[in-house]
Amino acid sequence: MLTYTSLYIHLLDQFLWGLLDKDEVMNAAEKLLSDIAGEYDTESIALNEVSVEAMMKAWSELFVNIIADNIQRN
Questions:
Q1: Rounded to two decimals, what is the model's pTM?
Q2: Sign (positive/negative) of CA torsion 11, 15, 16, 18?
Q3: What is the pLDDT of residues 21-31, one digit of tens each?
Q4: Structure confidence by residue, pLDDT tens digits, 15-65
Q5: Within 13 A of 34's CA, how many CA atoms are on the CB side?
Q6: What is the DSSP annotation of 27-38?
Q7: In 10 A of CB 2, how many CB atoms?
Q8: In whole angstroms, what is the distance from residue 2 CA to residue 22 CA?
């Protein structure tokens, strides 16, 4: 998860620095969220907008889902 977290945060950083636009960040972030959900066999989270709040909310929800699903399986 550390590698994925770093990639996700770096996307947000690059948006805030003006290096990537909203569409680029949205596409990459949604792909990351979907790929991570698939790897951890949990439901993916939709990203509603590109903002610090929205991106952190989506990441937090995905992380909690991964943990909850793992607890249920064990």
A1: 0.89
A2: positive
A3: 999 999 999 99
A4: 999 999 999 999 999 999 999 999 999 999 999 999 999 999 999 999 999
A5: 8
A6: HHHHHHHHHHHH
A7: 6
A8: 24
